Amino acid sequence: MTFLSSPGRAFLLPGLALLWAAGSAHAAPSPAEEVEALAAQVVALSLEADPTIAYFTGLTPPTHGRFADHSPKALRALERQEDALLTRLNAIDAKALPGPSLTTHAILREMLEAGRGLRICHSEQWSLSHMFGWQLQFPEIAEKQPIETADLRAQALQRWRSVPRYVDTEIAQLRTGLSRGYSVPKSVVRRVIQQLDGLLAAQAEASAFYSPAKRSEDPAFQKAFASVITTQIHPALKKYRQFLDKTYLPKARDSLGLSALPNGKACYAAYLRFYTTLDRSPQEVFDLGRQTVEKNVAEVQSLGQKTFGTSGFAEIISRLKTDPANRFTSEDEVFTYSRALVERAREASANSFLKMPSQPIEVRPYPDYMKGSGVSSHYEFEPDPKKPARYMLQLDDWKELLRSDAAVTALHEAWPGHHMQIATASAAAQTDIARLAFNSAYAEGWARYAEALSEELGLYDSDAAKMARRAWPARGMVADPGLHLYGWTREQVTAYAKETGRFNQAVAEELADRIAVMPGQLTAYDSGGLEFRALRTQAEAALGPRFDLRQFHQVVLENGTIPLLQLRANVEAWIQSQQPH
């Protein structure tokens, strides 16, 4: 993936702490009632902080007329309210909670504790990213901006006229960061500049921001919105680009790792907690990753001996890369192959789940402004179940792409991977907090588990794909902390990625910059994937012939995206319930 999110921003909470009125004539709330009330407060305050969250979660925003406020004053206010909510949550006896409320409690605790832990990073002062930066998020928001009524159109104009103020705040934060020793790598700055150039290349009516006007039948609004693009948005983009090119880039760091920043080691540990929902040290993640890579390499060697008559890992990878049958002949063939596999995967998955979500998914190529910017193929959720979600396919390097890797990625992103999990969670969500909750370890962990499940379902059409799905996993658990804490260079990361056969030099460089700007996130895939696999193995061993794969999948998917420790608690409770009494 994949599924992109910005750490530390989506769930910052503003404004009012939840307080039960002293001396109320009503009975004191039960622990379950207080948890649910806290959850409602978290949702309301999160949407108040950033109304655009609603477009990606299916929630209702308080307004369509503004963006988030990332000024120091606003962020400090958010932090105070996070602390008030966490204090309130910690006063609740979790042991007194029934199952659904216990899950809600776990979600709230993880969101609030992980968010507080990230404060040591001061990430708002180096919030510059080619992976999840505002310059990528805003075109998506434009596509979702509602314009059906006169009032909604007025709110749309109000929001997009505020882009210059938003950009000024971002520039001010970045200036502060530079003065305090915070910056992102120069290579990341250059990638963002390239994206800005792509956005600025189009005229107003061809702009990535023009969607609200394009969808409207109001000529006056169309004219006004086009004017906003030319007189407000584009000048703000140019100002931001000039700042990055002339001021920021010369002062940005050359190194990639967080160890170059103030409190870098503690910051990295906080990012690990944020992305994995586990209290594992960087060293524990690094060691587990190396052990898992060794196991995967041994399995590739066994398959290679069977398929190619050699057990040399490098020779096996070389054979995969040079086999003409493992290559595409055109960009269109990649697209057609991926779309056909996604359709076939849905049919093949049906017997492994109690219920398949009805929401479709479509395969789309990247828009022009994102081409060549280093963003990998990924899944984009659509909160409206009547509209298809999207598997966004990066085709920049299609000549280098292997069919085996294309298969693994498509199954990871669509069925039975991200789309299966996220569409199921969306359809089953009974609470707003369930719609708001997200963590990479669960989402990416399920998708990694789905890669292996796809092999069980017979979805890989060659042994090459079976080898490809084992060659890369768990290396993120090694390369990510290696780069940020253990002195790995860009060259070491790219070499480590390239030896799997999944990355050419350009894509390996993209991976290094991705790790640099999303510290800890690449460890989430296999931190989660190993947990899903371990829980299934535990359930199979405990239940024997009573084990039902469809029921297991229902148990792990039915509560949506939850912290891994709560996932384990839920599965173990289910195992106990299936035991004869």
TrEMBL record:
Coiled coil: none
InterPro entries in alphabetical order: DUF885
Keywords recorded for this protein, A-Z: Signal
This protein's record includes keyword Signal: yes
Keyword Signal on entry: yes
Span of the signal peptide: 1-27
Highest taxon listed in the record's lineage: Bacteria
Pfam families: DUF885
Protein's UniProt name: Conserved uncharacterized protein
UniProt organism field: Stigmatella aurantiaca (strain DW4/3-1)
Biological classification of the source: Bacteria, Pseudomonadati, Myxococcota, Myxococcia, Myxococcales
